[in-house]
Specification:
The protein has helices at residues 15-25, 37-44, 49-54, 83-86, 89-105, 124-136, 200-208, 248-260, 279-290, and strands at 71-75, 113-118, 141-146, 166-171, 188-192, 215-219, 238-244, 266-271, 300-304. The chain is α/β, with parallel strands linked by helices. It folds into two domains: 35-64, no CATH class; 65-80 and 89-303, Alpha-Beta Horseshoe (Leucine-rich repeat, LRR (right-handed beta-alpha superhelix)). A nine-stranded parallel sheet has the order 1-2-3-4-5-6-7-8-9, covered by helices on one side. Pfam families: F-box (PF00646), FBD (PF08387), LRR_At1g61320_AtMIF1 (PF23622).
Length: 305
């Protein structure tokens, strides 16, 4: 059996077209369908859920395979050709109903990764239902990109969870947290465009709840993150800081991380494309960052302009 995917981008191709192409390569013999379920599920896990579900029309063998895939990837941008077109209520309803249908029809085995990107389509009640469904199925990795037009609060079960190892949040709003926060298994935390209420307790509570955090990624620094608890830094190995503008508060934050993260292995700093600093000032700030004291002897600081 030859599996030729060199000319195809995973998740962006016509599933039926690839299926027929492989059959033609193998003399009309459908050798792909003879693979064990575990291998086919693994292949489908690399596709956006929209494409994985589409394989159900290939043959009887494929009809229900997608329901066992442990990775769910919903992205509203895959369902429209332009943002203007998608804002039509019919298309919004189509996307929401699709997510509902998938979550209802898939088998109840554990979800390894749940990714939801709603850049145009957003309904607080429906999104909360989808997240709750993923949590009930013991999701380990939660990746949310939500462009909200109203105050939005994530379900409390996201932050009181012993199973989650990865949380990635991209939200253009304040992150409101429940009174009880406990994420003891969390190793990766990405905060993109996320802001915090004007109190230090929120940030302290969040980072104190994940003592084994190894990877932190930040896009657009929020002053609420100035004082992270020591327990959140004891295991930190990787820091990615994006949209760096060279402000004093940003430099202070990076200095704090470099000094107190004693097992830090790598810090990546990416300059903002819209930075007001000229090349000379960027060079001076770069030298300043490299001169900062490091608590880890093995930390590599990479600055990309």
């Amino acid at each position: 059996m030859i599996l030729n995917m060199n000319s195809k981008s995973m998740g962006r191709f016509n599933v039926k077209e690839v299926y027929e192409e492989q059959s033609a390569i193998n003399g009309g013999y459908d050798s792909i369908s003879l693979l064990p379920d575990c291998i086919l599920d693994h292949i489908l896990s690399y596709l956006p859920t929209k494409e994985a579900v589409a394989t159900s029309v290939l043959s009887k063998r494929w009809k229900y395979l997608w329901t066992f895939v442990p990775i769910l990837d919903f992205d509203d941008s895959l369902l429209y050709s332009s943002q203007f077109e998608f804002r039509h209520s019919i298309n919004v309803t189509c996307f929401m109903n699709f997510v509902d249908k998938v979550l209802l029809q898939r088998d109840k085995s554990n979800v390894k990764r749940f990714r939801l990107s709603c850049r145009v389509c957003f309904s607080a009640s429906r999104v909360n239902e989808w997240i709750l469904s993923a949590v009930k199925q013991n999701v380990q990795e939660l990746d949310l990109c939500l462009f909200v037009e109203e105050p939005f609060v994530l379900p409390a079960c996201v932050f009181d969870n012993e199973i989650l190892t990865v949380i990635k949040l991209e939200m253009n709003c304040n992150l409101h947290l429940p009174p009880r926060i406990s994420i003891p298994s969390l190793k990766t935390l990405h905060l993109r465009l996320v802001t915090f209420p004007n109190d230090n307790n929120t940030v302290q509570s969040l980072f104190s709840s994940c003592p084994f955090l190894e990877e932190l990624a930040v896009l657009d620094y929020d002053s609420g993150m100035q004082l992270l608890p020591d327990c959140a830094l004891s295991s930190l190995k990787t820091v990615d800081y994006t949209n760096f503008c060279g402000t004093n508060t940003e430099i202070w934050f990076l200095r704090f991380l470099l000094k107190n993260a004693v097992v830090l292995e790598k810090m990546n700093v990416y300059w903002s494309k819209n930075s007001s600093k000229d090349q000379m000032n960027q060079w001076k700030i770069k030298e300043q960052l490299h001169a900062l004291p490091k608590g880890s002897l093995h930390c590599a600081l990479l600055i990309t302009t």
